[in-house]
Amino acid sequence: MTNPLFYAKILLFGEYGIIEDSQGLTLPYSFYKGALKFSSLQTDFERRSNESLKQYAHYLQTLELPLEYALDLKQLEKDLREGLFFDSNIPQGYGVGSSGALVAAIFERYSVEKYQAETISKEQLKDLKRIFGQLESYFHGTSSGIDPLICYMNLPILIENRESVDKVSLPAQKEGKGAIFLIDSGEVGETGPMVQIFFEKMKTEGFRKTLKEEFIRYNNACIDHFLKKDMNPFFKNLRALSLWAYDHFKPMIPKSLYSAWKDGLDTNAYYLKLCGSGGGGYILGFTKDYPKAEKMLQGFEKEVIYRF
Fold first, then answer.
1. Residue 126: phi, psi to the nearest 5?
2. φ/ψ of residue 242, rounded to 5
3. Are 7 and 88 in contact (CB under 8 A)?
4. DSSP class of residue 212?
5. Which part of the chain is CATH 3.30.230.10?
6. 262, 170 Cβ separation under 8 angstroms
7. Alpha helices, DSSP H only, in the chain?
8. Please, what CATH class does the domain formed by 179-307 belong to?
9. Are 225 and 234 contacting, i.e. CB atoms less than 8 angstroms apart?
10. Where is the signal peptide (predicted)?
11. Ramachandran category for residue 271: left, alpha or beta (phi over 0 → left; psi -120 to 50 → alpha)
């Protein structure tokens, strides 16, 4: 495949919690994608992308990667002179992994050793996560490496803790009334400032305590019940998680969704949660009755990503 596509990703569960060793669950999202391509750089988009990649290549020169994960940077620089750019429709600042897909594409094309997603061991996943964290730090200051890993693997990934990740199977979709969906807040979110707010909150003992004792417990229970397809306890914990976020993550919730978030909690028709760091971009919705939720959320752009 000359131009492999790299899909966006969605972090279903684990936002902020994974910083504090909670579990996380992520899946690829094929609605958005990106691929490395060559052109004569006629358009502004292509020229800007090529220029950004040149700056990124300078950063890559400064890294000391282990031999088995080394990149062929001479070939990358040659390709950049010949018009390489990243053709992507993944929106930036929406929490769906725009930089993750780029990092995955660069690694797939320029890694000296080639890997097959199906045969990568759990130990290699751990190594790749660390390497991808270094490669993506250019874009975010620091990176867990999770986003590029999901984009690279193109498989659902269970984040077991800060160090360990594993491939996982999601329950098969079926055409029921239940759905997980994205809501477009209409605002762009910036990861850096949101993460800064989180770390400021972590300085207070009360917040640290409730994060560990409540948020992480609800978050991990949601993942466990969802993977087992136990939908009643899943929604019970999801409601608790949504309410906790409404009380404690208010600065991360886009203002346009404050009242919709509360309406869901008041009516139990649907529950909302952050998708990534928040502040804008997408918000995740969960409901047992999508037609009813859709009616209540009129005026917002929505996209169903999973049916049950």
1. -60, -45
2. -65, -40
3. no
4. I
5. 6-167
6. no
7. 44-61, 73-81, 98-110, 122-140, 146-153, 191-201, 205-210, 216-228, 231-248, 258-267, 290-296
8. alpha beta
9. yes
10. none
11. beta
- CA gyration radius, the chain: 20
The mean pLDDT of 276-285, rounded to a whole number, is 91
Could you tell me where in the chain the CATH 3.30.70.890 domains are found?
Answer: 179-307
C-alpha 201/C-alpha 203 separation (Å) is 5
Residue type, 175: E
Measured from the Cβ of residue 98, the count of other Cβ atoms closer than 10 Å reads 22
Quick check: helix, strand or coil at residue 155? coil
What pTM value is reported for the model?
A: 0.85
Which segment of 74-78, 118-122, 220-224, 241-245 scores lowest on mean pLDDT?
A: 118-122
Please enumerate in sequence order all residues whose Cβ is within 8 A of that of 224, keeping only pairs 6 or more positions apart, or say none.
none
Mean pLDDT in residue range 64-81: 97
Please write the tens of the pLDDT for every residue from 195-244: 899 999 999 999 999 999 999 999 999 999 999 999 999 999 999 999 99
- How many CA atoms, within 13 angstroms, populate the side-chain half-sphere of residue 257? 35
